[in-house]
From TrEMBL:
Keywords assigned: Membrane, Transmembrane, Transmembrane helix
GO BP annotations, alphabetical order: intracellular calcium ion homeostasis
Name of the protein in its database record: Sodium/calcium exchanger
Sodium/calcium exchanger membrane region domain span: 2-137, 176-316
Main localization (coarse): membrane
Length: 317
């Protein structure tokens, strides 16, 4: 499982680097690259892991990874970032993107409880993500004001400037080869991670769902944790907040939609009844904290981190 996580990180970096270089070679604007390729690229560990788990007949890991990652993003990553440096919240990120995250979270939780995650549901979630990206890109072009999805790209640039803004290649062949190599490595890493998680669950005698909600979710969220912590250390709290909100939007609409489209299944009853509603609750809590003075203070960071510790204590048998 550790080898799988390592391959996911390495492959994800290569995938983003190659895709961005290829996009620049084709003349795609930096704004579009940042909102789409970089955003999806940094969420690639979650995407590949959930799809692989779905195809392997392990919906507990597939949807536990999505829901667990979102809970970890809010309670652990936003909380740790606020402890390092109070997180300043941009008004645009709160008004537009945090509300979009909250709405997507509520819809996902309702779907998980009421219907199976079939291909129609997956296609609908992906269609909503595409429409949302088009809306954000048009709004940014008409009057750039920043936002969560752009902050997600900026967070990566802060963690690895060379990765987020590489020099355009002279030929498109090399970036395409890098992209393909990254994709192969990510897929291999996802397969190892899922196999290791299933074996670990059997070895500990716990459910795959618990492993998906905890170890797998935190492991695949490592890129977001690293980029948010680096942003907080650089006193870029607004970027840390946007990185969390943007990641959650991609997780629900992009990863949830892709998983349902490729590997339709029912969300495990435990996740639908407890963890998904909890995800809604912590999302509301994050928005409330962010709306009070447009910042998440250190004491609120303590509450978030303590909440994640309590969640693990309740979850782990």
């Amino acid at each position: 499982m550790i080898a799988g996580l390592a391959l996911l990180v390495i492959g994800g970096e290569l995938l983003v680097r190659g895709a961005v270089q290829a996009a620049e070679r084709f003349g795609i604007s930096p704004l579009v690259i940042g909102l789409t390729l970089v955003g999806f690229g940094t969420s690639m560990p979650e995407l590949v892991t959930s799809v692989q788990a779905g195809l392997s007949g392990s919906p507990g890991i597939a949807y536990g990874n999505i829901v667990g990652s979102n809970i970890a993003n809010i309670l652990l990553i936003a909380g740790v970032s606020a402890l390092i440096c109070p997180v300043i919240v941009a008004h645009s990120a709160l008004r537009r993107d945090a509300m979009a995250m909250l709405l997507a979270t509520v819809v996902f939780a309702a779907l998980a409880l009421l219907v199976a995650m079939g291909r129609i549901v997956g296609a609908a979630l992906l269609a909503v993500l595409v429409l949302y990206l088009v809306f954000v890109i048009r709004q940014e072009r008409s009057g750039p004001e920043g936002g969560a999805l752009l902050d997600k790209s900026l967070a990566l640039a802060g963690a690895d400037p060379d990765l987020a803004a590489p020099h355009p290649a002279r030929t498109v062949a090399i970036p395409l080869l890098i992209t393909l190599a990254g994709l192969v490595i990510v897929v291999a890493g996802g397969a190892l991670l899922v196999d290791g998680a299933v074996a670990l669950a059997r070895g500990f005698g716990v459910s795959e769902t618990v492993i998906g909600l905890t170890i797998v979710a935190v492991g695949t969220s490592m890129p977001e944790l690293v980029t948010s912590v680096i942003a907080a250390l650089k006193r870029q709290g607004d970027v840390a907040f946007g990185n969390v909100v943007g990641s959650n939007i991609y997780n629900i609409l992009g990863i949830g939609g892709t998983t349902a489209l490729i590997a339709p299944s029912q969300v495990p009853s435990g996740i639908a009844a407890f963890d998904a509603p909890l995800m809604v609750g912590v999302s509301v809590l994050l928005v409330v904290f962010a709306a009070t003075g447009l910042r998440i203070a250190r004491r609120e960071g303590v509450v978030l981190v303590a909440g994640y510790a309590a969640y693990l204590w309740i979850l782990w048998p």
